[in-house]
Amino acid sequence: MAALLATALLSPLAACSSSQDSSGATASGSAKPTTLTVFAAASLTKSFDQIGKDFQKAHPGVTVRFSYEGSQTLVEQLSEGAPADVLATADTKNMNTATKASLVGTTTEFATNTLTLITPPGNPASITGLDASLNGKKLVICAPAVPCGNATKQLSGKLGVTLKPVSEEQKVTDVRGKVESGEADAGIVYRTDAAASGKKVTTVAIKDAGQVINHYPIAVTKSSTNAALAQQFVSQVTSEAGQKVLADAGFSPAS
């Protein structure tokens, strides 16, 4: 009888010890497991992976899950109902599309980027820039709908150069992959992608590349079920620590 009474008295206490507060943390101090989904342009892979790790350390119980694709693909997926809490694109054009479709809230520019050429190590095809050295060579670029492809189109137009690529990819990391594997003689990517490839490629600067600058905006999605946490991630990206990670990857500050 005494044992039964003790059990009855302990039961409510056990229930109280595991009760959750409004923030999702339990009374014992453990955090409620939460997944934050971030849709980000493929060129942000290296820097956002690091920012995500830093964010998780500062937010126990939170897992940041990334989906890296071409910006236009991410906006299409979001418009079709794919769940995401944050959207970061490699241009304002695709973010404006998301804004007009009421897919995101307030946008904030957090970085800028420019284009460069990359070749396999040692530049075996002797590429010198967006010039005659590309004639007859296997050049790979991004498709026009992709931010890096749109930038490539604008830049080649400003420079009066006609490009004849052997393929147009749906994301900049695919261009990198084809050059790194030796499948292409040259590829046009962001300078951050050239930096991320390291010794796997040789970088060839494009004269007057600064005539076309890509602006990177970020926003919390309207469909986010963790809007407050998503806004904290945005703040992490724009913070001094987040900006250092981006700068180390080769990005320039927001204009």
TrEMBL record:
Q: Which NCBIfam families is this protein grouped with? A: modA
Which molecular function GO terms apply here?
metal ion binding; molybdate ion binding
Protein name in UniProt: Molybdate ABC transporter substrate-binding protein
**What family does the entry list?**
Belongs to the bacterial solute-binding protein ModA family.
Q: Does the keyword S-adenosyl-L-methionine apply?
A: no
Q: Where does molybdate bind?
A: S43, S71, V172, Y190
Q: Does the keyword GTP-binding apply?
A: no
Sorted alphabetically, which keywords does the UniProt record give?
Metal-binding, Molybdenum, Signal
Which Gene3D superfamilies does the UniProt record give? Periplasmic binding protein-like II
Name a biological process GO annotation. molybdate ion transport
Top-level taxon of origin: Bacteria
Could you say which residues form the signal peptide? 1-17
Question: What residues form the membrane-spanning segments?
Answer: none
